[in-house]
Amino acid sequence: MSQQRHGSTPGEAGGVPAFPDLPEATIARLPEYLRALHHLAETGAETVSSEGLAAAAGVNSAKLRKDLSHLGSYGTRGVGYDVSLLVAQIEYILGLDENRAVCLVGVGNLGHALAGYAGFASRGFRVVALFDTDPRKVGEQINGLTVRHIDDLERIAAEESIAIGVIATPPGTAQTVADALVAAGVTSILNFAPGVLSVPSNVDVRKVDLAIELQILSFHEHRKASLTALPGGRSAAASPDKLPDNQKAVGS
């Protein structure tokens, strides 16, 4: 879930933009395409059709072709897309060729799990620093890193060229942490704490709220249950003629 979106980086006048202005929906799907492409590469595939890649990424092929056209990649008729070339294109667009430095603030249960996740390195990220304010946690070793006090954030952010900050604190302290990250020059934040952060216009925030995701799934469970509870599995709202007389709207 994105809390902000900013304009594109302009390219050279009269030419193809140096960096494409991608729709938010396309940006959100690129990591899924990349994941599918990495899996294909691991199995030895050198090319893939739009239908094959779309199925692996869980989207329809027309949407995939439109997304990739934004990157200037159209594939070859009868052959499909070159897997390694498409991986390189998407990794460039996502900035994954720069091996970005990431810091994590808050080493509670969630922070511990995130700090120990080995998948970041293979996806183009380096977790270079861990921070907390709890004196019982400061000095702890997690996955080869020493937990530092947040007072050291600005100095270490400069030393490590930290680009992205991850907030895994209780909601009451998330804004204070965001302010500290912004003051330290961090311009991208991934927030796991419930609530909306107030940040300057040049700072991008992505919010991960597990409770919201569960509530959305609860809606789908509720909807499925309401459909299967009706004769024939049909929705009463979609079939007003099937409603009992005492449930029909007045004037129907």
TrEMBL record:
Subcellular location: Cytoplasm
Any one cellular-component term (Gene Ontology): cytoplasm
The keyword Methyltransferase belongs to this UniProt entry's keyword annotation: no
Positions that bind NAD(+): 106-111
DNA-binding region positions on the chain: 32-71
Major location category of this protein: cytoplasm
Pfam families from the UniProt entry: CoA_binding, Put_DNA-bind_N
InterPro entries to which the protein is assigned, alphabetical: CoA-bd, NAD(P)-bd_dom_sf, Rex_actinobacterial-type, Rex_DNA-bd_C_dom, Tscrpt_rep_Rex, WH-like_DNA-bd_sf, WH_DNA-bd_sf
Residues annotated as transmembrane: none
Keywords associated with the record: Cytoplasm, DNA-binding, NAD, Repressor, Transcription, Transcription regulation
Domain CoA-binding span(s) in chain numbering: 95-196
Region called Disordered, residue ranges: 230-252
Biological process according to GO: negative regulation of DNA-templated transcription; response to redox state
NCBIfam families: PRK05472.1-3, PRK05472.2-1, PRK05472.2-2, PRK05472.2-3, PRK05472.2-4, PRK05472.2-5
Family as reported in the entry's similarity comment: Belongs to the transcriptional regulatory Rex family.
Biological role: Modulates transcription in response to changes in cellular NADH/NAD(+) redox state.
Name this protein carries in UniProt: Redox-sensing transcriptional repressor Rex
Organism: Actinoplanes campanulatus
